[in-house]
Amino acid sequence: MLRVMIAARWFVGGIRTYVKYFHGAFDPAATEFCVVATSEAQVDVIQEDLRRFSARVYMAPDEKIASFMRTAHAAVREWRPDVVHSQGFSTAFAVAPLALTYSLPHAVTVHDVLLRRGRRLKDLVNSVGVGVTLASANRVIAVGQDVAANLSEEIAFRARVARKTVVIPNGISVAPLLASRAVDLRRQLGIPESAPLFGFMGRFMGQKGFGLLRQAVERLVEQKSVGDVPYIIAIGSGGFVREERELTEKSSASSYFRFLPFSSEPGSILKSIDALVVPSRWEAMPLLPMEALALGVPVIGTDCIGLREVLRSTPARVVPTGDVDALANAMRDEVRTPSRASCADYAEAARSRFAAEGGALQLRQLLESLHHRR
Known about the structure:
This protein has helices at residues 13-21, 43-49, 65-79, 89-101, 120-136, 145-154, 158-164, 174-179, 185-189, 210-222, 241-249, 266-270, 288-294, 307-311, 324-336, 340-354, 357-373; strands spanning 2-7, 31-37, 56-59, 83-87, 106-110, 139-142, 165-167, 197-201, 231-235, 257-260, 275-278, 299-302, 317-319. By secondary structure, the protein is an alpha/beta fold. It folds into 2 domains: 2-171 and 356-373, 3-Layer(aba) Sandwich (Rossmann fold); 175-354, Rossmann fold, CATH 3.40.50. A 7-stranded parallel sheet has the order 3-2-1-4-5-6-7, with helices on both faces. The protein has a 6-stranded parallel sheet with strand order 10-9-8-11-12-13, sandwiched between helices. Strand 1 (2-7), helix 1 (13-21) and strand 2 (31-37) form a beta-alpha-beta unit. Helix 6 runs antiparallel to helix 7 (158-164) and helix 13 crosses helix 16 (340-354). The model has no long low-confidence stretch (mean pLDDT 92).
C-alpha cells in the first residue's frame, strides 16, 4: 500500500483537476491519500474528487504559509505518509523543510511558469527561491515541455534541477466529458436563439486575459456589425471576478456578456457553446482547451507560453498574445465561417493526444520508485 500526502496551498482550478484526473486514476486497492490544503478549498469537493480512496483531509485554518506548514507537519506526524507530492511552487517551499526533516521522498509538480516583468530584484529572489526549493526535491514534474524549458531558463541551480526533472504532460479524463449533457444556455440566459455564443471559463486573474476579451468584443460593437458580435458566457470565480463584472457592466459591450459561477462539469458548458475563447497571457499546460478540442468545440486562443503547446497542430484559431484586434478578428471570422466541422474531425485525435491515463500511470510509477528507493 502506497501512502501519498498531496499538498496543495491552492486546491482550485488546474491543480484541483490535476489531482482529480491523475491521482484519481490510481488503484484504490494499492493507494491511500491524505490531502493538505488551505481554507480556500472545500473538504467535500476534495473528498468527492477522491471518493474511491476515502482520502483524509487536513485543512489549514487560513491561507498563510505558516498555517499551512503547521498543518502539513501535523499530517506527517499523524498520518505517516510514504511520499509527499507538492502541487506548485509555494506549496513546495512550505513542504520542503518538512520532507527533509523527516527524510520523506518529495515530488513537486510544477503548474506555472516564471516570467520576468522588469522588477529585477523580485525576479532574482523568485529565481533563487524556486531554484533552491526544487533542488531540494527528489523529483520535479513539469506538466508540459514549455514548463520544463521555462525552468531551464529562469531559475537558479537549473542544472541540478534539470537532472531531477521529468515531463509528464497534463491531461484530461475523456469519459466524463463524453457522458456530459448540453444545457440550453440561450433560453436560460435570455440570448437570441440564432446568436453566436462563445465561452470564457476560468479564474478571473490577470493571466487569463478576460480584459482582453472584453476589449475585443468592444471592438466588434464599435464596428456596428451586430451579426458579427458573439454573446459571451463568462464562467468562473475567484481572483478579480467582482472587479471584472463591474468593468464589464460599464462597457459598451455589456449587453453581450453573461456571468455564471464556477461549474464542476465543463463538458456540459462546452457542448452548449459555439466556441471557447482562451485569451491568456501565459499558461503552464491548460486543460480547458484540451477538453474543448476533445469534444470537437472550436477554440480561439493566444500563442502564449503553455497554451501554444496545447494548440499546436490543431484546428484552433491562434492569435498573438495581447493583440486585441487580432482576437476580435478571429472571433468575427469564427462567427462568419465556423470551424466546427474541422474541429469535429480532429476530436478523436484530441482524445487520444490529451487523455490523462498514460500520465497517471507514469506518475504512479514515479511515486512508487521514490518510496522503494527510500
